[in-house]
Structures are given as C-alpha cells and as structure tokens.
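ENTRY TYPE: paired fold submission
RECORD: A
CONTENT: sequence, then structure tokens
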Amino acid sequence: MKLPVHRWFRYTAGFSAEWVKSVIMEHKKADSMILDPFAGSGTTLIAANELNLPSVGYEKQYFVRRIAHNKLRYDVNIEHLKKLYKEIVNTSFSDFNFE
C-alpha cells in the first residue's frame, strides 16, 4: 500500500504488493514471465512491472478488470499530460475546421 496506485481502490480480496514482489524475486529466473489467472485489481501485475518482468493477467469480473487495467497505467507522465492540457486550453475553436 506504499504506492498511491494501491490505495485509490481498496479491493477486499487484495494482498500486499511488497509480499508479491518478495515471492517473485524468490522464484524468478532469467527469462521469467508472470501469469496471473485471477488478476483481481492488478497487484501482481503491478509488482511484475515494477520488477521489469513481463506479465499477463486475466480477470473475469468486468468492474475489477477495469480497475486493474487503469491501475496498470499508474506510471503515466504527468508533465506530458499537463503540456497537452495547456495546448488544448490555449487552442481557439477558430483553429479547427469543423466541416
């Protein structure tokens, strides 16, 4: 729960990201890939990303799957998004061709 990405949605069936990382580190090999057949809110997939390991997860429940999908985007470059936002705000409608 140290990273904000793990705190924005409390998943009751969740577990510690630090514990997941320790288990991955204990058992990983040079060409490891993480498979999480019950991905839940994405804790294991996020841990794999933080360890620079490829991962694949599956989750049947649509809502929880959407949470995991969005949490996996936690490393978005905020400064880039701010720049894009400013460009949009500073663009007048006359710059667009609506035809």
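RECORD: B
CONTENT: sequence, then structure tokens
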Amino acid sequence: MASKDPNQSMAKTIYILYLVSPAVPLTGLIGVILAYVYREKSEDWLYSHFRYLIRTFWIGIFYTVIGIFTSFILIGYLFLLFVLVWLVVRCVKGLQQLDQQVEVENTDSWMF
C-alpha cells in the first residue's frame, strides 16, 4: 500500500462535495476547481482520482443539460433521475478505491 498522501483527504472532500451538489449545486463547482488545483501535486494513483472527479463534473453537467432540455417532453425527468443515480454510484466507487489507495479503474468511462 502506498503511503498516506495529504491530498487524499482533499480528494475525499471533493467526492463529498459532489454528493452534496444535487442539493447545493455550488459545491460541485467548488469541487471541480479544487480537483484542478490539487491534481498536479499528487502521486500517480491519486492523480487518477482527480482526473476521475474532473470528468465526473463535466460529464454530469452534460447529462444534466440533456435532462433539462428533454424535461419539456417529460422523459427528461427520468434522465435527471438517472444522472442522480449515476453521480452517487461514481462517487461511491471512487471513495471505495480512494480508501484502498488504488487508482480509479477506467477513468475515461462515461458510465460507472
């Protein structure tokens, strides 16, 4: 196991900010800014978490915009529910791998 990186707690904080973001949207924006700042200063395994967090934010924004635009034809509400579940699954998966101090598997995935 790798030694404890001080940036590990920042990554955990960002995951938590993302989990809170459906209720308080500004926390997602704060989280992605922090991920950009801390990404370059971390070990390789932790870098993958920051990359995963940044991608989660931007993909989540993309999915949310699609959900908002399609809500006028009612299917968007189901899509927004999917986005919420998607966000929770990605964050829980990332937190589990962060606690194990391993790289995120498949950081380029658009799904889980």
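NOTES ON RECORD B: The mean pLDDT is 91. The helical segments are 7-20, 26-39, 44-70, 75-99.
STATUS: closed
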